[in-house]
Amino acid sequence: MALRYLARSYPNENWAQFLDRSNDVDWEKLILTGQSQGGGHACFIAMKMHRVARVLMFGAPKDFNVYYNKPGAWFFEPSITPGNRFFSFVHEGDDHNGCTYQQQLQIYQAMRLMPQYSVVDADQVPYPYKHSRLLTGSFPQTNAHGAPIRDQRYVNAWKYLLTEPVQ
After folding, report:
1. 112: left (phi over 0), alpha (psi -120 to 50) or beta
2. Of residues 162, 148, 159, the one with CA closest to residue 119
3. What local confidence, expressed as pLDDT, does residue 167 receive?
4. Do 60 and 103 meet the contact criterion of CB atoms below 8 Å apart?
């Protein structure tokens, strides 16, 4: 496993902090993050496989069943990781790559993030974004799907996603 290798090979970099006493991954110390499909994978791992410290999803999750016109069934199931540890940042112009923006909002409802948290426009509302877990952007973009992770104007949003208290 990569963490064991890093802990053994680079002890001064403190990789061992992410291993438990059995030398296995200490999942509750990890922040899972990803963009697009990777954000969906981070979400799935946190909901179905491991309780983690935090989940950051950019342009994600976008698992929407167009045949049944509803989010993927797994979003409706209980989550191993508490809901207050999930953060998503999608652009309102991202109407492709798995689902439309409106379908994305349905996914948030299935995950029980909405209505507990409102979707906050990071282009209009300053830090701390009403302490929401659901950020969006509205500034016109040539690549709305990648904007939440690529556009430098969102640097404060990135810091917020990493540091907003979850307890």
Report:
1. left
2. 148
3. 75
4. no
Whole-angstrom CA distances from 140 to 58, 93, 94, 114, 147 are 17, 8, 11, 25, 10
Nearest alpha carbon to residue 57 among 36, 83, 85 = 36
What percent of the chain has pLDDT above 90?
97
Among the listed residues 137, 92, 87, the one whose alpha carbon sits nearest the alpha carbon of residue 116? 87
Nearest C-alpha neighbor of 111 from the set 165, 61, 156, 51? 61
Residue matched to tokens 């540890």:
85
Q: What is the DSSP string of 88-111?
A: EEEETT---TTS-HHHHHHHHHHT
Which pLDDT does position 122 carry in this prediction? 98
pLDDT recorded at residue 1: 80
Q: Is 31 helix (H, G, I), strand (E, B) or coil?
A: strand
Which residues of the chain have a pLDDT value below 50?
none
How far apart are the C-alpha atoms of 122 and 158, rounded to whole Å?
10
Distances from the Cα of 15 to the Cαs of 24, 33, 54, in angstroms? 12, 18, 18
